Amino acid sequence: MECNDYNITRDLERKNLNLNPLQRGGVLPREAREALHDFGDGYSVCDYCSGRLDEIAKPSISGFLEDLSKFLKVDDVRTTHGARESKFIVMHSICEPGDVIVVDGNAHYTTHLAAERAGLEIIEVPNSRYPEFRVDMDVYEETLKNSIDEYGEIKLAVLTHVDGDYGNLTDAKSFGNFCNKLNVPSLLNCAYSMGRLPIDANGWNIDFVVGSGHKSMAASGPIGVLGMKHEWAETLLKRSPRHTKKEIEMLGCTSRGAPIATLMASLPHVVSRVNNWNEEVELSRSFVAKLEEIEGITQLGIRPTNHDLVRFDTPILHEISKIHPRKGFFLYEELKSRNIVGIKRGQTEWFKCSTYGMSKDQRDYITDSFKEIVEKFAK
Amino acid sequence: MECNDYNITRDLERKNLNLNPLQRGGVLPREAREALHDFGDGYSVCDYCSGRLDEIAKPSISGFLEDLSKFLKVDDVRTTHGARESKFIVMHSICEPGDVIVVDGNAHYTTHLAAERAGLEIIEVPNSRYPEFRVDMDVYEETLKNSIDEYGEIKLAVLTHVDGDYGNLTDAKSFGNFCNKLNVPSLLNCAYSMGRLPIDANGWNIDFVVGSGHKSMAASGPIGVLGMKHEWAETLLKRSPRHTKKEIEMLGCTSRGAPIATLMASLPHVVSRVNNWNEEVELSRSFVAKLEEIEGITQLGIRPTNHDLVRFDTPILHEISKIHPRKGFFLYEELKSRNIVGIKRGQTEWFKCSTYGMSKDQRDYITDSFKEIVEKFAK
Ligand SMILES: Cc1ncc(COP(=O)(O)O)c(C=O)c1O
Ligand SMILES: Cc1ncc(COP(=O)(O)O)c(C=O)c1O
Q: Does A39 sit within 8 Å of B6, measured CB to CB?
């Protein structure tokens, strides 16, 4: 048979400044590119396996997991295929179909899908609505208490540490503590935080932390992280009665290939970048301040921002789209001609973006470009 | 914190002839190495996503899935994280905990784990035992009928197309047909066949076919394939009521990174190598014949073999290990010194191996090396 041409090339990231928040934390550092090259083939990490992925000594997956658990301050840790797969593992192993869980109102769609796949009912904690969309811990605690009153038992409480819509950072420690007090297992979704900012699972009293290697840990996708308090290991990491080395929820082995090699190679880089998180937030804030110098561009979410992912209301861009011959496409095209990408084609009323990891000059080039575009077209 | 040294290098495949059957079908061709390079970063395939991984147009995942379904002669197809994850998706979506399924006696441990994770009971079809370990379709059909009599309903019948212990090829067409007649959904595990030999899912009347990209389709792991008759799509690919584009069992998106780019890049190569399968089997048979020239080495499983994975009883090597100063390690070390790897350290009573994709000269070098080693040490 003749195959279609799949157009399998990508130079978007090499040739442009990419504002897509999804892509900023997954860019591979040099060490990870080398690992990708060495571990490209099939089951490359399995050469010296004697039955347990997490115990492989060459490359030292066991040594890596030890470091990872220290880094996250968590008792036990495994790699999975992604944050969503980690969430599903938790829900599938500690809940029964029909059970009720509580989830914050800024949860990622994958939290909802994991719950739907596990047959669970979701109670939602409302956010504070426009313009902050904040998830308040008082509101969460109250919703959780009411849910316990109503349903008798709540099997899991999920909090998005940093959400993907507004980049709002939530109060994990308060969450961990009231969940613990109310005897409800807590899951913190760190897809947008683990690998960007410090995680202290035990310090925050969190039962389960999940992370995303390709989203925030400079790894090649798909790969996720699942950390847990030791008391959960017996349930989540239960072994097969028939194949006694193999963990059932992991289907024996999870990330058996290049992604785990890149996650491992990136860990030292990630550990060190997390130490510079405050500077990153400063850069993000000054990026926001500069964009907001344009009249008709306003940051939504908590102010000042505590994250690199920021969302803007951009009525001025929408105004321009109404009079511009290229309509809603003008913004994408003007940015593209300046080698800036990552804002969806046709979108002008609002956008979210991230400049994570960019230099100050690159960020200034981006804000200057926005200014130039608005000046060029605004009446 | 200081990270451990994880020793993240691999030149095993580059510098040696690797007999490990797990590794032979996952070696990347040049095109896939290029895709790996281009799509190394994080969520690299997601630049132009508008909500559905399987519908992405750049790179053309949609065009690829169209070709893949033609290649497998199956109605609908998705990528997953591996053969085991595909099996779990099928079991989780069409069975309920407590249901009974029938599985062949040569099933891979991941079939058992997928069933255990889904809470299913397994009835096993015995194989024919030493020396062939054949799974006969008459025996399968009888076991299936008896199980229906005993349990009322059998929710799924699983057959390993080519097993990982003996490389026995089973009769998929006969299996598909009697399952259909008995009204039991059939799943064919093609982890060791899809990408090596032709698959004709619809021609064989099979409900579900699963494959492994890193095992047999020249892809970087982890990535799997799940094909199904169209009548199952509504159940398996059910969309979320809340996020109406997203398929629940896929948790929205599965292989969101480099592995799918390599699988796509490799497909034309894989399509063409499957056409040469008969030659591959001939080469495997002559490899077996040459090794069997050594007294005390005998192939197990169906003879002549129909696959590149072959298992040998090797009493002569075990005899040598009893008198050799390096004991059971002698074989590994002698082979290693000849740049031949992939047989476990310490193993001498039997081994399985594959020379898939090697040239005739390379295969001859390997059989000659075994002869040399045996001659050197046998009394
Ligand atoms: C908050 C949040 N959680 C989870 C995910 C999903 O991560 P993964 O691809 O690792 O499942 C995302 C991805 O966008 C996210 O933003
Ligand atoms: C017969 C068979 N099925 C399934 C698997 C697992 O494949 P995957 O890693 O894609 O889950 C293997 C791997 O060894 C196998 O030999």
A: no
Total count of residues recorded for chain B:
379
Calpha distance B163→A2 (Å, rounded): 30
Q: What top-level class would CATH report for the domain B39-273?
A: alpha beta
Tell me, what's the pLDDT at A293?
Answer: 98
A224-228 and A208-212 as β-strands: parallel, antiparallel, unpaired?
Answer: antiparallel
Query: pLDDT tens digits for A253-265?
Result: 999 999 999 999 9
Task: Give domain limits for chain A.
Answer: 30-273, 276-377
CA distance B19 to B336: 11
- φ, ψ for residue A311, nearest 5 deg: -115, 140
User: In CATH terms, is domain B12-25+276-377 a member of 3.90.1150.10?
Assistant: yes
A276-377 topology per CATH: Aspartate Aminotransferase, domain 1 (3.90.1150)
pLDDT by residue (tens digit) across B259-276? 999 999 999 999 999 999
Residue found under tokens 């994408």: A332
| Distance from the Cα of residue B72 to its chain's centroid | 15
- Residue B379 confidence (pLDDT) above 90: no
Given a contact cutoff of 8 angstroms between Cβ atoms, the answer to whether A55 and A268 are in contact is no
Q: Do domains A30-273 and A276-377 have the same CATH topology?
A: no
What pLDDT score was predicted for residue A379?
75
Q: Yes or no: say if B201 and B101 are a contact pair by the CB < 8 Å rule.
A: no
Burial of A208 (0-12, 13-18, 19+ CB in 10 A): buried
Cα B11 to ligand 1 centroid, rounded to whole Å? 33
Angle at B187 between CA B204 and CA B24, to 5 degrees: 90
Fold for domain A30-273? Answer: Aspartate Aminotransferase; domain 2 (3.40.640)
Average pLDDT, chain B: 97
pLDDT at A378 over 90: no
CA distances in angstroms from A30 to A67, A112, A342, B222, B250, listed in the order given: 20, 35, 23, 22, 32
Give B345's Cβ-side CA count (13 Å radius): 7
Residues with C-beta less than 6 Å from any ligand 1 atom: A 22, 82-84, 108, 110, 160, 163-164, 189, 191-192, 212, 215, 224; B 256
| Cβ contact A43–B88 (<8 Å) | no
In terms of pTM, does the model score above 0.90?
yes
Q: Between A and B, how many CB-CB pairs are < 8 A?
A: 273
Pocket of ligand 2 (CB under 6 A): A 256; B 22, 82-84, 108, 110, 160, 163-164, 189, 191-192, 212, 215, 224
pLDDT (tens digit per residue) in A228-271: 999 999 999 999 999 999 999 999 999 999 999 999 999 999 99
**A68, A151 Cβ separation under 8 angstroms:** no
DSSP H stretches of helix in chain B:
12-15, 21-24, 30-38, 61-72, 83-94, 109-117, 137-151, 172-181, 213-216, 233-236, 258-275, 277-292, 315-323, 330-337, 360-377
Which DSSP string corresponds to B217-255?
SS-PSS-EEEEE-GGGHHHHTPBPSSSTTSBTTTTS-S-
Using CA atoms in the order B187, B188, B189, B194, what is the torsion angle rounded to 10 degrees?
A: -140
Determine the 3-state secondary structure of A301 from DSSP. Answer: coil
Query: Which of B112, B212, B310, when mutated, tests ligand 2's pocket best, judged by the most ligand atoms within 8 Å of its CB?
Result: B212
CB pair distance less than 8 Å for A112 and B243: yes
Report CB contact under 8 Å: B256, A82.
yes
